[in-house]
Amino acid sequence: RIAEKKLRGFVAANNIKFPILIDKFHVFNGLAEEGTVVMVFDWNRKMVKRYVFPLNKGQIEEIFKFLTESDKKGQKK
User: Fold this and answer.
1) 19 and 48 in contact (C-beta within 8 Å)?
2) Of 2, 32, 35, 62, which residue is 20 to 30 A from 76 by alpha carbon distance?
């Protein structure tokens, strides 16, 4: 609960508009055997990408590019 509250505060403080989910029921544990991961669900391309921490510069740029493109598409609606 504390982590959820902190995450909600972080999302609000940083004006994050994309959905962030916490895997409470450990559904994705098999995908995170190597450590903490970020998963990006691209519904338009019907694709899921998985990034294992620590992220390298290229991965960070790729994630932010995806989020920026997604935000622009959302604003057009």
Assistant:
1) no
2) 62
pTM: 0.59
Segment (H or E) for 75: helix 57-76
The per-residue pLDDT string of the chain (77 residues; one tens digit each, 9 = 90 and over) reads 787 888 889 888 988 877 777 788 888 888 778 888 888 888 788 889 999 999 999 999 999 888 888 766 665 55
Closest C-alpha among 29, 34, 51, 31 to residue 42: 51
Strands 37-42 and 47-52: antiparallel
